């Protein structure tokens, strides 16, 4: 991991700590593991972790489903773009975005200018397995949530492909193993590392 700039902070550290000069944004479908894997990547590297949904919820003092119900998706997307722009300026570390964030051109441009994007690429069956029992994704509150997820998947994959890197999620890979895969993938790309450290 020598390509990441090692922190010079004094004192004993439980694990190596790296200083990123930009943000690594995880993108991809709901259920891909952006929040869980992002947190683990950040822990492994000893860098800050933020999740755009959590930041939106904190600022509104409401959950994502509550924001959708009260103010609608358009309002949520506006907040999401603002939060992502703000975090890209203020935060050097790992940023897990919500599944719809990378669809907006302004978010892709901001992430591209001020960070790098990593697509967690999971197939539809795996995504469905992960989200089917949870009621936290308002877009899936439809008569046919599996069909809705499939339609979102079809529409979104071409946009996720625009990410700087893609890491394939596999059924049998734990959160920890996925996090290591993300780090290993970053390490194989000097051009991306250069961008993070510039
Ligand atoms: N590699 C994995 N192995 C097992 N469970 C996972 C894995 N990645 C994510 N999960 C679980 O799947 C669910 C969705 O993950 P989450 O991180 O919330 O995805 P996202 O933020 O992309 O919507 C959570 O319950 C999480 O703990
Ligand atoms: O796919 C989407 O449009 C959304 C995904 C959710 O985040 P996760 O991808 O972290 O579940 C959250 O931002 C919101 O429910 C909308
Ligand atoms: Mg998430």
TrEMBL record:
Keywords, sorted A to Z: Amino-acid biosynthesis, Aromatic amino acid biosynthesis, ATP-binding, Cytoplasm, Kinase, Magnesium, Metal-binding, Nucleotide-binding, Transferase
Annotated InterPro entries: P-loop_NTPase (IPR027417), Shikimate/glucono_kinase (IPR031322), Shikimate_kinase/TSH1 (IPR000623), Shikimate_kinase_CS (IPR023000)
Annotated compartments: Cytoplasm
Residues annotated as binding Mg(2+): 35
Short name of any one Pfam family annotated for the protein: SKI
GO molecular function, one term: shikimate kinase activity
Cofactor, how bound (note): Binds 1 Mg(2+) ion per subunit.
Gene3D superfamilies (UniProt xref): P-loop containing nucleotide triphosphate hydrolases
Alphabetized CDD domains for the sequence: SK (cd00464)
Catalytic activity: shikimate + ATP = 3-phosphoshikimate + ADP + H(+)
Pathway: Metabolic intermediate biosynthesis; chorismate biosynthesis; chorismate from D-erythrose 4-phosphate and phosphoenolpyruvate: step 5/7
Entry cofactors: Mg(2+)
Biological role stated in the UniProt entry: Catalyzes the specific phosphorylation of the 3-hydroxyl group of shikimic acid using ATP as a cosubstrate.
Family classification: Belongs to the shikimate kinase family.
Subunit structure: Monomer.
Protein name listed in UniProt: Shikimate kinase
Annotated organism of origin: Sulfitobacter aestuarii
Gene name of the record: aroK
